[in-house]
Amino acid sequence: ENSTVDERVNISHIFEEGYSSKGEGRGIGLHNVREILAKYPFSSVSTRSADYLFSQTITFRK
Q1: Residue 53: strand pairing partners
Q2: Is the pTM above the cut of 0.85?
């Protein structure tokens, strides 16, 4: 969980390679997360942005 400058972050593009709200030369981390989780069919990531907080929860099920 991280604080954000804006009340809400538009999460529709955050997993795209090269996308970053922090500027150029970034935007590989969440893309890599999505690529890794694609290899595990019982995994998921939940993203939330509200009240100046951004959080993600990764879940692995058996």
Answers
A1: 3, 50
A2: no
